[in-house]
Task: inverse folding
């Protein structure tokens, strides 16, 4: 029982160990220190200076749209890696200094390229990502509506659809005498059953 | 009557030409995108800073904590290596960097920037692996690494005397690649 408790405690503690940074920490000042060349890259701060909960909330929201460079499809907000935590610190420092979302994204994009965006910008070749699903959806709707309309036309005219007409069946039967014989026998059997029922 | 008999296209001679055209119009771009995506080497990283001014860091030196910036290192071409003691490929490439710094240190400044690591670990590691052949700086909270767009270590940047990033190498740098990059930085002299 004691062993079980120790194992459970270790399991609970594991994420805490995983969150520890390997790198040197510089205290509160370093937490909010801006990285190199921020202003020369993105210009003077264009947003409000945020603190407290508002700062945390905006840091989380913006970190959600930024890709962790060492993970598989995770944002820096979701990744537990130290790289992602350091990037999130930089996001927080920039927001605290009054930089707006576009400026923060531009700073990271300058260094990492568009890869850093979880959602690529809707321009150039990337536009296909937005256009194709819409075209596919509209095309699918058009096909479904066309098929439904054709079936309604057939039903309202009372005519059999071309496929249900006898010609193809006759030609099949001409080609396959055995099939013709089976159909004839089945037809005869059905007719006699009808007579019996009457 | 079977279910297919109700369905004119399916039983009556195939899919209509319009449906084929719409299908092709939708599927072709998807195939093109997939072909482009799968045709790319996933190990090739973007190098958006190539040809741009190198970010001007200011980091404490390992030996004495003195803040050192790009300006202090400018004047000569620069080789900036991001590394860590916990990174095995870094140990693999380290002898190449030490040898290059000893061979071409007169003309080219080498500098190591420690990424996500502790000072004691770095000191002990360098003592075990050939000493301090060139300055080592400590990147607190990876601010410099982020400005340089470092994905992981090791990564090596080649910066001209004018402060412009000429190229970057991702992963442990083999001797021939390092020698060629340094040769270019030195203006073609070998």
Result:
């Amino acid at each position: 029982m004691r062993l079980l408790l120790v194992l459970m405690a270790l399991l609970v503690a594991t994420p805490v160990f995983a969150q520890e940074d390997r790198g040197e920490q510089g205290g509160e000042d370093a937490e909010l220190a801006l990285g190199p060349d921020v202003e020369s890259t993105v210009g003077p701060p264009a947003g409000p200076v945020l603190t407290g909960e508002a700062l945390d909330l905006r840091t989380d929201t913006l970190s959600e749209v930024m890709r962790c460079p060492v993970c598989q499809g995770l944002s820096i907000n979701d990744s537990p890696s130290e790289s992602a935590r350091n990037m999130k610190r930089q996001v927080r420092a920039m927001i605290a200094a009054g930089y707006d979302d576009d400026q923060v994204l531009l700073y990271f994009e300058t260094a990492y390229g568009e890869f850093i965006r979880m959602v690529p910008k809707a321009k150039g070749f990337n536009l296909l990502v937005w256009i194709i699903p819409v075209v596919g959806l509209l095309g699918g709707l058009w096909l479904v509506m066309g098929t439904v309309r054709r079936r309604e036309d057939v039903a309202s005219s009372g005519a059999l659809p071309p496929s249900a007409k006898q010609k193809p069946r006759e030609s099949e039967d001409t080609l396959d005498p055995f099939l013709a014989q089976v159909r004839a026998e089945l037809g005869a059997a059905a007719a006699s059953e009808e007579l019996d029922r009457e | 009557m079977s279910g297919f008999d109700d369905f004119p296209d399916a039983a009556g001679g195939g899919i209509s030409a319009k449906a084929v055209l719409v299908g092709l119009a939708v599927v072709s771009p998807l195939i093109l995108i997939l072909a482009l995506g799968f045709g790319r080497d996933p190990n090739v990283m973007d190098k958006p800073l190539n040809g741009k001014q190198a970010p001007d860091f200011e980091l404490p030196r390992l030996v004495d904590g003195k803040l050192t910036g790009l300006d202090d290192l400018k004047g000569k071409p620069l080789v900036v290596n991001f590394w860590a003691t916990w990174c095995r490929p870094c140990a693999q490439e380290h002898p190449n960097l030490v040898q290059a710094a000893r061979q071409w240190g007169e003309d080219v400044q080498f500098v190591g920037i420690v990424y996500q690591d502790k000072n004691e670990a770095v000191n002990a590691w360098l003592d075990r692996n050939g000493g301090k052949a060139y300055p080592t700086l400590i990147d607190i909270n990876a601010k410099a690494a982020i400005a340089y767009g470092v994905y992981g270590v090791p990564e090596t940047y080649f910066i001209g005397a004018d402060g412009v990033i000429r190229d970057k190498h991702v992963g442990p740098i083999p001797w021939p690649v390092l020698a060629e990059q340094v040769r270019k930085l030195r203006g073609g002299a070998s």
Observations:
- The first helix of chain B runs from residue 8 to 11.
- The longest strand of chain B covers residues 109-115.
- Chain B touches chain A through 49 residues (CB under 8 Å).
- The radius of gyration of chain B is 26 Å.
